[in-house]
Write a structure and sequence with these properties.
226 residues, alpha+beta
């Protein structure tokens, strides 16, 4: 009966009908809120870059403005999985990570002795038409055969965790060395974790990640980036 009821209203797909009832299909980003948050990120990363041991020579304002315009012009905001969050919050979180990858690159290059380092994965805005968030490593050095995932923490709580499948993927790739670069923005500290060194460590279910097997990174491993 319920199916016939929905059909009588013109809906053959239950999931889409529920989306319609919630009005979750209506996405109208508040660009004024995004503009103000962009200003905040410019101040945050400008200040961080000014105290870094290995500062970046990028123009943060130019990157933020260009990124926002590209995303706006190509309707990319609707492609970001919001998991029920406001689209402005999703974009702010994504841009935090995006800027961290850029600003901390000189530190990564210096620490690992890399000769090249570039963006990797599907959320590379150089080709907006193919933009997609994937599980691929954020950065890659093809010359040095190194993959780097970047995790930047802005909340000051919960610590940092590595999911077991990331270690499995790293160990299954003998040609590349895989790292996670953690940046604790609240405390001004960072840590590189070689994923292959965790192959025999004990991973435990983590309720913060829906029970996925994780390994917690000790804060004792971190050192200052400023």
């Amino acid at each position: 009966m319920s199916k016939e009821y929905r059909n009588s209203l013109g809906w053959t797909n239950k999931a889409k009908f529920i989306q319609y009832l919630k009005a979750s299909d209506i996405v109208r980003p508040n660009w004024e809120v995004i503009r103000l948050r962009n200003e905040r990120l410019s101040n945050i990363f400008g200040a961080i870059n000014s105290v870094l041991k290995y500062p970046s020579n990028v123009d943060i304002d130019v990157i933020i403005n260009r990124t926002t315009e590209t995303i706006k012009a190509n309707g990319i905001l609707t492609k970001l999985n919001n998991h029920g969050r406001a689209i402005e919050d999703v974009y702010y979180t994504w841009l935090q990570g995006y800027l961290a990858e850029i600003v901390f690159q000189p530190l990564m290059v210096a620490e690992l002795g890399l000769t090249d380092l570039m963006r990797n994965g599907g959320d590379d805005l150089s080709d907006p038409a193919s933009f997609k968030r994937t599980g691929a490593a954020d950065l890659v050095s093809h010359e040095n055969k190194v993959l780097i995932d970047v995790q930047a923490g802005f909340s000051g709580s919960g610590g940092f965790d590595i999911k077991k499948h990331k270690v499995n993927e790293a160990c299954a790739n003998p040609d590349y060395q895989s790292y996670v670069f953690f940046a604790n923005i609240v405390d001004g500290t960072y840590h590189f974790q070689d994923l292959k060194l965790l192959e025999n460590e004990e991973f435990v279910p983590n309720p913060r990640w829906e029970g996925q097997l994780c390994w917690n990174v000790s804060p004792d491993n971190f050192k200052t980036f400023w």
